[in-house]
Specification:
This protein is of the alpha/beta class and 407 residues long. The chain contains 14 helices and 13 strands. It folds into three domains: 73 residues, Orthogonal Bundle (Arc Repressor Mutant, subunit A), CATH 1.10.10; 141 residues, Nucleotidyltransferase, domain 5 (2-Layer Sandwich), CATH 3.30.420.40; 160 residues, ATPase, nucleotide binding domain (Nucleotidyltransferase, domain 5, 2-Layer Sandwich). Helix 8 packs antiparallel against helix 11 and helix 10 crosses helix 11. About 1% of the residues have low confidence.
């Protein structure tokens, strides 16, 4: 709850400053009166914090201009505008076979995006660190942004992360790859870590099909299944960051593991190839089972291939069990299937919806994400912006170099 009296502690002042920045981002020119209405804060608090945010470089105060014949009783209203170019943030998604990075301004507008693959699937920590360095340099150069202007970096990882940003080190790989330490030491940035599916949930609520939805599950459903969960608009972590982890699916009848839609579409597609001589599915893979991909199975089904359609039926049944189990546990309003398979997975929605009541008494609405496979890095931008807003009074954009195209 916002506190409308004169701030008595630095904590209250930080909360109020963050609320004002949220209200001003994307709002254009606003007056003190408008900020009072949108935040519920008192005039004294609004003006005091605006003055401090102007001093720090977050806001610009505009001159009030009156025409020669204009007359306005009393002092003219003070007008402020949020400076989108005050600083920048960096969002990074460290995937299994590639890294994606986005640089954005303080409005969350992307300035550049770069994706770099790894040379092999099983990548050492050193190679990941080297690729991370290269992609950071490349994405900053393309954005016209200096490394010194980055106020926060958020990194998405495929591992449980606590609410304090600590990776659950029971996962052996992350013991050898201290991504936060590497990025912080090499570049001097403040680095935040978060689970990739959690970042996908932030992205979906911010810019996706789940805008305005407070009770939400977003499932990354490509090669593996992972979920990020929002309850009453709050991202849930659990004691050690394991909330939303889907390892329990190993024991769910008809599911059995955490492999995702892309994995089983290709696997089950190969299983039916022997019975599909001369069909669209076989033609798409050139009679080579090893070349068959999930995209080919969805394409063949859309073109009327009966065997491919049977694979999609199996996928829908399996996903109905998965979504039914998690919906019974957390009772979301909406479940969004996201990641690289999202566009294809839209074909599964009708069959999943039909079967969901067999597996849960509280079936949610279903949708597929429109944010494509960049969803995690988009969520990382949102995560970094949240941090900056929360700590706005401790940061001074006025001392940072501007990007090359900033006025």
């Amino acid at each position: 709850m916002l506190i409308g009296t004169a701030p008595s502690t630095q904590l209250v002042r930080r909360v109020n400053a963050g609320a004002m920045l949220k209200a001003m981002r994307g709002a254009g020119v606003v007056t003190g009166t408008e900020l009072m209405a949108s935040t519920g804060l008192s005039r004294a608090t609004v003006i005091s914090i605006c003055d401090e945010l102007v001093r720090l470089g977050w806001l610009q105060e505009l001159e009030n201009q009156r025409g020669a014949g204009d007359y306005i009783k009393g002092r003219p209203a003070r007008r402020f505008v949020f400076d989108d170019s005050a600083a920048s943030v960096l969002g990074i998604d460290i995937g299994a076979n590639k890294i994606t990075a986005i640089v954005a301004d303080m409005a969350g507008t992307p300035l550049s995006q770069v994706t770099m693959p790894f040379r092999t699937y099983n990548v050492s920590a050193n190679e990941r660190a080297d690729v991370l360095d290269r992609i950071a340099a490349d994405v900053l150069k393309k954005a016209g942004v200096s490394a010194d202007s980055i106020l926060a970096v958020s990194v998405g990882v495929a591992a449980p992360v606590s609410r304090d940003g600590e990776v659950l080190t029971v996962q052996e790989f992350w013991k050898s790859f201290d991504v936060r330490g590497i990025v912080s030491e090499r570049h001097g940035w403040h680095v935040l870590l978060e689970n990739d599916a959690n970042l996908a949930a932030l992205a979906e609520r911010w810019q996706g099909t789940a805008q305005g939805v407070d009770n939400l599950v977003v499932m990354l459903a490509g090669d593996r299944l992972g979920s990020g969960i929002l309850e009453s608009g709050r991202l849930l972590h659990g004691q050690l960051g394991g909330f939303g982890e889907l390892g329990y699916l190993d024991t769910v009848d008809g599911v059995g593991d955490t492999y995702g839609i892309a994995h089983y579409a290709a696997l089950w597609g190969r299983e039916v190839l022997d019975d599909t001589k001369g069909t669209k599915l076989r033609k798409l893979c050139g009679d080579d089972p090893a070349a068959l991909t999930a995209e080919m199975v969805f394409k063949a089904s859309a073109e009327g291939d009966h065997a491919a359609a049977q694979v999609l039926d199996r996928l829908a049944h399996r996903m109905a069990r998965v979504i039914g189990s998690i919906s019974t546990l957390v009772n979301p309003e909406l479940v969004v299937i996201a990641g690289a398979v999202a566009a294809s997975a839209n074909a599964l929605i009708p069959a999943i919806e039909k079967q969901l009541p067999d597996f849960t008494f509280t079936p949610p609405r279903l949708a597929t994400s429109t944010l494509s496979d960049g969803i995690v890095s988009v969520g990382a931008i949102r995560h970094a912006l949240d941090y900056v807003e929360e700590h706005a009074l401790d940061l001074s954009p006025s001392s940072l170099p501007k990007r090359a195209d900033a006025s």
